[in-house]
Amino acid sequence: MQCDHCAQDVPDGVFCTRCGAHQGTTQESGNAKTREHRYAAHPGEHVAQPSVISTLFPHLGHNKVHEFRWALTAGLAGVLVLYLAGLITAAILVAAFLVPVLYLIYLYEAQVYRDEPATVLGFTLGGGIVVGIVVTILGRAIYNPFDYNHNPLGSASISIGGLLIVGLLMPVVQEVLKAVPAYFLPNHAEFPETVDGLVFGVAAGLGFSLAEGLIGFSSALTSLAHVAPGNWIYDLTTLAVFQPLMQGSATGMVVATIWRYRRGRLGGREIGAVVMAVVAHIAFSAGTLLLKDAAVNPLAILIWQAVVVGALLIYIRYLLHHALLEEAAHMGFAETVCPSCHTHIVAAGFCPNCGMALTAAPNSIKRSRRPRKDPAATPSGGE
Ligand SMILES: [Zn+2]
Ligand SMILES: [Zn+2]
């Protein structure tokens, strides 16, 4: 059949395997070509769905997304149990390591780093940890308002200077420095897809968050005796969930933009991603500081952090969706299995059945692609 949108001859399917467009007249709302009701990395979801796992762990198939969701929930339940048992130090350690460790398992599952785990992990997760240690220690040496993130007592009132440093200067400095190790990844040419850049950036951001969280809480722990235990659960939630998700998402977007730039695709969407990362980080840090200073209900602080993280996740999906639609269009035909709907398919860039962009497939599936002649008999490059 002929695709309604790119006019190429393609095998029958609900989606065009060449350009990913939804075929025919659809009951679903929206533009069939940009198909924002069918997120290219997870066609079962809308692009604007702020789902943590399917956004930050884009290579996972449908079943694996559920497994990771359960693992995250179980980890958080573990933090809560340790907290209720009064084991604050253990609760802090589990909270700080939870998301970074899940991400390490994900990188292994999807083999995102292919044959070079040491190099890739060193320049992403490891680089983020090193930058996190240096920046957090230097930042605290320069200015330490009242240990804003981690001291529930929050005794002193915050000054304008302190707000500008912690709420404005530090987020900008961090967003620049967190992306530096991934930028210098020596074999980055072997990972040309934007989805790879996103994952590397998230890993770097999580490494940073781990170092920042542990250093921050270590200073709070030394004065543990003076702390009202009732307030720890809010700070633990920030440490376990919102801090790593904010740091990971923001750096994911910045590094994904660097990858887009290297492909010569720096447009408004990409510049918007960097602006969004910096603005969201400022909103997160300055907002948390101001709300703590105003002594509002700590639950309101968590809601604010969740809103910022949700906005970041949606922008990542918007950025990655359009990058996938564009980048997967260059793949050649091959026999493969769709990681999303598990159908055996002969496809180019997109699963004709569910519309998943096959550049976001786990590496084991990409490796097992068996090249086939284009059914429409036009010679094509691709993999
Ligand atoms: Zn098409
Ligand atoms: Zn499929």
Number of domains: 2
Q: What's the N-to-C terminus distance?
A: 23 Å
Note the beta-strand portion: under 5%
The major sheet is characterized as: 3 strands, antiparallel
For the biggest β-sheet, the strand order reads: 2-1-3
Helix content: 55-70%
Rounded mean pLDDT score: 89
Global morphology = elongated
What is the C-alpha radius of gyration, as a whole number of Å?
22 Å
Bound molecules: zinc ion
The helix-and-strand class reads mainly alpha
Which key phrases capture this entry?
single chain, 383 residues, mainly alpha, 2 domains, three-stranded antiparallel β-sheet, elongated, disordered C terminus, binds zinc ion
Brief summary:
The chain is mainly alpha-helical. The protein is built from eleven helices and three strands; from the N terminus they run H-H-H-H-H-H-H-H-H-H-E-E-H-E.
Write structural notes for this entry:
With 383 residues, the chain is mainly alpha-helical. The chain is 58% helix and 3% strand. It has a three-stranded antiparallel β-sheet. α4 packs across α7 (194-222) and α8 (232-262) packs parallel to α10. It has two domains: 1-37 and 333-383, no CATH class; 62-328, no CATH class. The two termini are 23 Å apart. It contains eleven helices and three strands, in the order ααααααααααββαβ. Bound molecules: zinc ion (ZN) (2 copies). One zinc ion is lined by residues 338, 340-341, 343, 351, 353-354, 356.
